[in-house]
Amino acid sequence: MAEFDLIELFRSRCARVRADVTLGIGDDAAVVAVPAGCELVVCTDTLVAGVHFPLHTQAADIGWKALAVNLSDLAAMGATPAWATLALTLPDANRAFVEHFASGFAELAEQHALALIGGDTTRGPLTASVTAFGFVPIGMALRRDGARVGDAVLVTGTMGDAAAGLGCVGEQERDTAIVPSAPESARIALRARLDRPQPRIAVGEMLRGRASACIDVSDGLVADLGHIAAASGVGIEIELARVPASEAFRAAVVADRQSTLQLAGGDDYELAFTIAEADVEAALAALRASGLPTTRIGRVVRGSGVLVLDRDGNPMDLPRRGWEHFT
Ligand code: ADP
Ligand code: MG
């Protein structure tokens, strides 16, 4: 596939008409307009084959995930997605691969009316690097540094599914946490959580002006809450018993491995956030309307770092290095 054809394929599938795109794919650079009263929110995340997704992942899922992990960062900032650029490195210009990649990317882009406005194409080991652009009303971005002592700590969705999904990938299963007799339906559900993360854009938008701090769970719950704690100069205490698990997760993961996957498994792309006690009920009511379950798991305390209380209320010993190796 010639480079021109490849660019034309992305243009026809993913460019979309938006009034704020003066000039999209096809010139030396894109020209876009940020709406009055808004700030531009920008992030970049790269997926490397075999590192950020298993080798042999479906091309459409890679295209979806390359955009999804970036939209998740926008969600964590409370931003509304608008545009993206894509730097794609391919070992060979295989047409079927590129078409499927573009269709997965386009499927998610459509859901958020996002336009692909440019990119770059190079030859090399399979890598997809996306830069995403979104808007927030001036001063309204959700940050990591606003958590205050006494705030409640909440998460969207369920934790550990993507890590369990990784355990369901072929060869690796033998030495992971997956129950050998786990039902096929659970394996499929967990794989979908790994391959097709759902960026929580609507939740992020709803949290503007409500959450005191917010982050997306990409490295693991404890690690990511640790980023909020460090940035805010506070400690965070959560209760293991409150950390939400999906039915598929409970059916498929070996009982004594569940807490590790829930606390340290990455790639769930849910939102973890803090909110002043007085605002929790109203926020939960608003979030309930979104259809996505949100769970209160702990609170912000004086001090530093993240403390997890086990089911008996005792502090768990979190092997720091172990966590890092896990992800
Ligand atoms: P230049 O040589 O001026 O950098 P390129 O030939 O790399 O331009 O790209 C031509 C046009 O195609 C540019 O508008 C660029 O943004 C776009 N483009 C290149 N690769 C991609 C891609 N993978 N996805 C989307 N747009 C791309
Ligand atoms: Mg040029």
From TrEMBL:
Positions bound to substrate: 52, 267, 323
Binding site for Mg(2+) 1: 44-45, 120
Gene3D superfamilies cross-referenced by the UniProt entry: PurM-like C-terminal domain, PurM-like, N-terminal domain
Family annotation (SUPFAM superfamilies): PurM C-terminal domain-like, PurM N-terminal domain-like
Biological or metabolic pathway of the protein: Cofactor biosynthesis; thiamine diphosphate biosynthesis; thiamine diphosphate from thiamine phosphate: step 1/1
Gene Ontology terms for molecular function: ATP binding; magnesium ion binding; thiamine-phosphate kinase activity
Superkingdom assignment: Bacteria
Residues annotated as binding Mg(2+) 5: 219
Top-level EC class: transferase
GO biological process terms on file: thiamine biosynthetic process; thiamine diphosphate biosynthetic process
EC code(s) of this entry: 2.7.4.16
Binding site for ATP: 119-120, 144, 218
Domain PurM-like N-terminal: 26-136
Reactions the enzyme catalyzes: thiamine phosphate + ATP = thiamine diphosphate + ADP
Pfam families: AIRS (PF00586), AIRS_C (PF02769)
Binding-site positions, Mg(2+) 3: 28, 73, 216
Positions contributing to Mg(2+) 4 binding: 28, 73
Keywords, sorted A to Z: ATP-binding, Kinase, Magnesium, Metal-binding, Nucleotide-binding, Thiamine biosynthesis, Transferase
Residues annotated to bind Mg(2+) 2: 45, 73
InterPro entries: PurM-like_C_dom (IPR010918), PurM-like_C_sf (IPR036676), PurM-like_N (IPR016188), PurM-like_N_sf (IPR036921), ThiL-like (IPR006283)
Other information: Reaction mechanism of ThiL seems to utilize a direct, inline transfer of the gamma-phosphate of ATP to TMP rather than a phosphorylated enzyme intermediate.
Function (record text): Catalyzes the ATP-dependent phosphorylation of thiamine-monophosphate (TMP) to form thiamine-pyrophosphate (TPP), the active form of vitamin B1.
Family: Belongs to the thiamine-monophosphate kinase family.
Protein name (Swiss-Prot/TrEMBL): Thiamine-monophosphate kinase
Gene assigned in the entry: thiL
